[in-house]
TrEMBL record:
SMART domains linked to this entry: HTH_XRE
Superkingdom of origin organism: Bacteria
Species, as recorded: Megasphaera elsdenii
GO MF, one annotated term: DNA binding
Gene3D superfamilies in alphabetical order: lambda repressor-like DNA-binding domains
Protein name listed in UniProt: XRE family transcriptional regulator
Domain HTH cro/C1-type residues, every copy: 5-58
Pfam families linked to this entry: HTH_26
Length: 59
């Protein structure tokens, strides 16, 4: 699934390491999600909360 997580994260000037730390998700899992791996809605909510954006901005 194509998503905009990496784009939004970079626009906000945050590193993938920062996102992992602030969501409690594993760095490798986030990397996989940014590169098209399937992602749960609950994970999208955690990412959106950390990046202070809407879930719809990420997909």
């Amino acid at each position: 699934m194509k998503n905009n997580i990496k784009k939004v994260r970079q626009q906000k000037g945050k590193s993938l390491y920062w996102l992992a730390k602030n969501t409690g998700l594993a760095y490798r899992n986030l990397w996989d999600v940014e590169h098209g791996a399937d992602v749960k809605l609950s994970t999208l909510y955690r990412i959106a909360e950390a990046l202070q954006c809407k879930v719809t901005d990420l997909i």
